[in-house]
Amino acid sequence: MNFESLLKTYQSQIDRALEHWLPTDVEPPSILHQAMRYAVLGPGKRIRPVLVYATGQIFDTALSHLDSSAVAVELIHAYSLVHDDLPAMDNDDLRRGRPTCHRKFDEATAILAGDALQALAFRVLACDTPLLCDAQCRIRMLEVLAHASGSRGMAGGQAIDLAAVGQRLTLAELENMHTHKTGALIRASAKLGFLASGQTSADFEARLDLYAHNIGLAFQIHDDILDVEGATETIGKPQGSDQLRDKPTYPNLLGMEPAKAIARRLCDEAIAALDCFGRSADSLRWVAKFIVNRDR
What we know:
By secondary structure, the protein is mainly alpha-helical.
């Protein structure tokens, strides 16, 4: 199997689905809709939707039945980036190699675009008709996404991150922050792919959750590494921005080589969690390796 070709297939699938659900840029209020589209449809890895598709296809689920889950997690991710970049948060000027949403438009429009993307994510998951799921399952999926997005998930992790600027965290505190800030939505992606496939096995769900927990943490550690070693034109945001803001990171706390070793270990543990699925989970294994070897 050519996994790079499969990745492109998944990325094309999510781009079509996002285009379907996003409002057109001429529909009023057009500036708000332009900002929403700008935030979502720009260049990106689409890792979270890819996880939805790759998880669902373990169980031979058609991509069209997974679209709503993939769209929902990508909309939440896009909203979080718009808000994270705001002057009151990380105050970034560059995202994915382009001006951040509040620089391209204005701060108020960026705030509203993020708000609207978050609301749209839940509408998609609640209303999408190709999602072959009964009402009870759909409610559980909505709860999974809400939990991952809120104060006990991504938003809570961002709050911890803001409070940690200039502080020296312990390894456990740093892991807790990243488990929430980055890991929660990655875990939700795998869980939504599992649920959208109509699966109920508690053992399968637990194994996929362990996989996603490990790659979520590995993803953030590798981001910390790229902030030091990556080039601005490659990673799409200013190199060294974490160090400039005095943010706690794995390389700062442990050193570069130990940080890389932890990311590799987490990748190996994630792959081991998939043993019960045999070759059907090869795409998820490839995603784990991609996360710790990417250059952006």
